[in-house]
Design a protein that fits this description.
single chain, mainly alpha, 3 domains
């Protein structure tokens, strides 16, 4: 019961921590007006509060998050502004789910329109502008790489022009980690969407990979993720098997070794040794448990 309660309360506690940091950051200015450099900090507070409430499994996560952000009334109408932003963002998330099955470029256009409808032009630019420019660039870049009539030199020249047209001269360099961060965030949203079936989910994920990284890299990424999932499942099975072997006081040494060999299966010596090292480290950090009856 205590462990379950801790799992429920942890997301809320993490969100409250973020809210506290944001409140401290906002003390020096008029961030409660949701303008300028404070807008994104306020948005971080709102997103963190809503995430924490939803992850905790409470019956009305929006109401719980609303109470948390209302406490950030740092001068004037700060709390009221943040509660309004929270309500708008919750509405945005609900309506954005309808676009999940659209092709990537259509989804981007629909989200842009929805953001400006709900947040207004100025606030939508403050909150989403950087992400939108990055996605615009990635989609246009993907189209360039699909054009087989271009030479490598022509493609690079057009890509450079594209960078400067979208980001301007000073911000023309787009760091790769941002692409990966955007992929991880969007892929997580797709995987967590309860309205998608397994086949629909994979089609969307592959479309996202190809749009960001091109067809060849997308296929390598898909294979890597499939391997990681398969290995993660096998690690879970191995861990449960090892727990059973090492927690059974009735096993003699020869039986224990036979069971370990069966668990190892076709793993190479190096792979088995690396896994066992991780397992022993994990096992040593666990709280002691009572022996089985």
């Amino acid at each position: 019961m205590q462990r379950r309660r801790a799992l429920v309360l942890f997301p809320i506690a993490a969100a409250v921590l973020v809210l506290g940091v944001v409140a401290w950051l906002r003390l020096g200015g008029d961030g409660h007006r949701l303008r300028g450099p404070y807008a994104r900090r306020d948005f971080l507070a709102v997103r963190s509060a809503l995430w924490g409430a939803r992850e905790s499994g409470v019956q009305d996560p929006v109401a719980v998050a609303r109470e948390q952000v209302a406490a950030l009334s740092v001068g004037g109408e700060g709390g009221a502004d943040l509660v309004g932003l929270l309500d708008t963002y919750a509405q945005y998330q609900d309506r954005a789910r309808a676009f999940m099955n659209l092709p990537l470029s259509d989804r981007q256009a629909a989200l842009k329109g929805l953001r400006r409808e709900l947040f207004g032009d100025e606030l939508a630019e403050s909150l989403f502008g950087e992400e939108e420019r990055l996605m615009d660039f990635l989609l246009a870049r993907a189209e360039l790489h699909k054009d087989g009539s271009l030479t490598a030199e022509e493609r690079l020249a057009r890509e450079e022009t594209l960078r400067r047209d979208i980001f301007g001269e000073e911000e023309a360099e787009v760091p790769l980690p941002n692409w990966i961060q955007y992929y991880n965030q969007t892929a997580s949203e797709i995987r967590a969407n309860p309205d998608l079936g397994a086949e629909e989910r994979e089609v969307l994920l592959q479309s996202l990979r190809e749009g960001l990284f091109g067809a060849e890299a997308a296929e390598r990424l898909r294979q890597t993720e499939a391997w990681q999932k398969e290995w993660g499942e096998r690690e879970a099975i191995l861990t449960r098997g090892l727990d059973a072997v090492f927690s059974d006081p009735n096993l003699d040494e020869s039986t224990r070794q036979a069971r370990l060999s069966a668990l190892r299966g076709d793993l190479s010596s190096d792979a088995w040794e690396r896994f066992m090292a991780r397992y022993q480290l994990s096992r040593s950090s666990r709280p002691p448990t009572a022996p089985p009856k």
